[in-house]
Write a structure and sequence with these properties.
The protein is α+β, with helices and mostly antiparallel strands and about 375 residues long. Helix content is about 40%, strand content about 25%. InterPro entries: BTB/POZ_dom (IPR000210), KCTD11/21_C (IPR045763), SKP1/BTB/POZ_sf (IPR011333), T1-type_BTB (IPR003131).
């Protein structure tokens, strides 16, 4: 409530006058007369040109409020943001019973991950839960080293802190925890970040998906015997045979965006070049043949066989991670479609063995 009042005053008063309102509100947030006295002493210690009277608390409070209409002391007008940060730190100390005081930089332990930042960064969004924590409105715990402790996901907090620092959401290209980041942003009630996540959620490949859609997948695997001539020596050939496994997948989806995303998630490897499979408007057909150890690579290429790889892992090897069977293909397919908001609706023949299924149906509502 106090934050909303202060935001209203910001729209109708000068910055210096708002500082006076801010200080007055801090008095109402103090839960006892002793804290009010301590607050005034701390404020007086920071500025030698104070205009407050510490003889009586009521007189001090009234004197501060009068500055809303009559103006503020010159030292407040000169650097009001520094004063606000200073008062926030002092209220934070009073709320947490810290006699030594808190100074910038501030160390915060979030779920075991230690971050060092400033009070200005932590209170960038003052109407957020994080802003309330570091303006003394919500008591904070400390760890055994004296750092402020917040029991939330520590690794995800890195992206929240960077957003507060630069007002920009910069995520790694392979970031897959958008749902977790959205949950943390909602907990801390950082509305600009929540709005940015909602905006990205409507983009293809964002992890939110978008419109409702139906996805149907059929996979098959057939073993064939391949006969070939193998050159042992000059003018010496040997007739050889080996078994190869031909895998196929037919994907149908009412969302053309997902079809394009799946197409870009896989690539064919022909021995020398990597080729992205070409999708239809609402379907994608794949066929691949892993090269068995007993089959020479040149024979594999000569027969027009192609291996299927996962495109987004291409930085780990020359042509990505090869998919050896339909099970590994299904695992990668589910990773993509579940991240896009789909949920499994039907699995056959064995509903308990989704990775080895022949038919899969997913829906997005």
């Amino acid at each position: 409530m106090h934050i909303q009042v202060f935001k209203t005053v910001l729209n109708t008063h000068s910055q210096a006058q708002c500082v006076c309102v801010f200080i007055s509100m801090l008095f109402t947030l103090s839960d006892c007369e002793q804290n009010k006295t301590s607050l005034m002493q701390l404020l007086s210690a920071d500025r030698t040109h104070t205009h407050t009277d510490t003889h009586t608390h009521s007189h001090t409070h009234t004197h501060t409020l009068t500055h809303i209409n009559t103006g503020c002391p010159s030292w407040i007008k000169k650097d009001p943001q520094v004063l606000i940060n200073s008062v926030c730190l002092k209220m934070l100390n009073l709320r947490n019973g810290d006699s030594d005081g808190v100074i910038d930089p501030v160390c915060v332990n979030v779920g075991g991950e230690l971050y060092t930042t400033t009070l200005d960064t932590l209170t960038r969004c003052r109407d957020s839960m994080l802003g309330a924590m570091f303006t003394g409105q919500i008591p904070l715990l400390r760890d055994r080293h004296g750092n402020f402790f917040i029991d939330r996901d520590g690794k995800t907090f890195r992206h929240i802190l960077n957003f507060l620092r630069c007002s920009s959401l910069d995520l790694p290209a392979d970031f897959t925890e958008l749902t977790l980041l959205r949950r943390e942003a909602d907990f801390f009630q950082i509305r600009p970040l929540m709005e940015e996540l909602d905006r990205r959620g409507a983009e293809p490949g964002s992890g939110r998906g978008g419109e409702g859609a139906l996805l149907c997948v059929e996979v098959d695997s057939v073993e064939r015997v391949l006969h070939f001539n193998y050159k042992r020596k000059p003018e010496s050939y040997e007739l050889c045979s080996c078994a190869v496994r031909v895998h196929s997948a037919h994907i149908f989806c009412t969302s053309h965006t997902l079809i394009k995303l799946l197409s870009s998630s896989f690539s064919y490897w022909t021995g020398s070049v990597s080729v992205v499979p070409q999708p239809g408007r609402m379907d994608l057909k794949l066929e691949w043949v892993p090269c068995p150890p007993e089959l020479p690579r040149e024979q594999h290429i000569r027969h027009g066989f192609q291996e299927l790889s996962v495109t987004h892992h291409s930085e780990h090897s020359e042509h990505g991670i090869s998919l050896s069977d339909t099970r590994s293909f299904m695992a990668e397919l589910l990773r993509v479609v579940l991240a896009e908001g789909f949920r499994i609706d039907l699995v056959s023949p064995d509903p308990s063995d989704v990775l080895n299924c022949h038919h899969l149906r997913c829906v997005r509502y």
